[in-house]
Amino acid sequence: MTTADATPAESQGTDYRRIVRDGIWDNNGVFCMLLGMCPTMAITTSATNGLGMGLATAAVMAASSLLVALFRKYITQEVRIPVYILIVAAMVTVVDLTMNAWMHEMYKVLGLFIPLIVSNCLPLARLEAFAAREPVLPSFIDGLFMGLGFTLSLTIIGGVRELIGAGTLFASASLLLGPAFEFLEMRVMPAEAGVLMFILPPGGFLATGLLLVGKRMLDVRAGKPIAMGGAHSVG
Q1: Per the structure, how many domains does the chain have?
Q2: Which residue has the higher pLDDT, 205 or 233?
């Protein structure tokens, strides 16, 4: 392979730390790109729900990015979007069946939002912007950490809503995620001290907006430029 034929990651070396940092913080799917807002608003009534939905999405993104990068040379420009959707749909089916078999209570709570990962803009955005252009390992890392960044966002938003609305954190984690997660369950405030609105739909917008502002303030203090994040390739 000549230098002219090499991809940016192959010819210049891949900055894996930047890929990880982008996924978790700098180019976070929720707090920077504002993608995947439908499950973000609907599922984050508790930290447990946010964690479960985020991990399901992360698994789909990591596997889909791996497959697209693996077969990118065989996917033509004209059919790439249908192929990406087909790959994501196949991975969603695997995750859906796996959760139904091994995490049935969580599966019942998340319901239709697991199949709707197919229509989530975040996986398709990363496939188009990164996995379709970069080698296999960087693409897998990008998909995984973009998914984990999404998981972190949903868990934090769900935690804030649950804490203010019900006074608990990770309620029913042992039931929904399994007995191993019982250590996460805690009651921080009496139930009567909760603000019910944060459990209801308006609370999702309030919590997300406040957390978005908080992240922007931290970025300003760190001297980072403030701009709406875009799905971009990291070489």
Answers
A1: 1
A2: 205
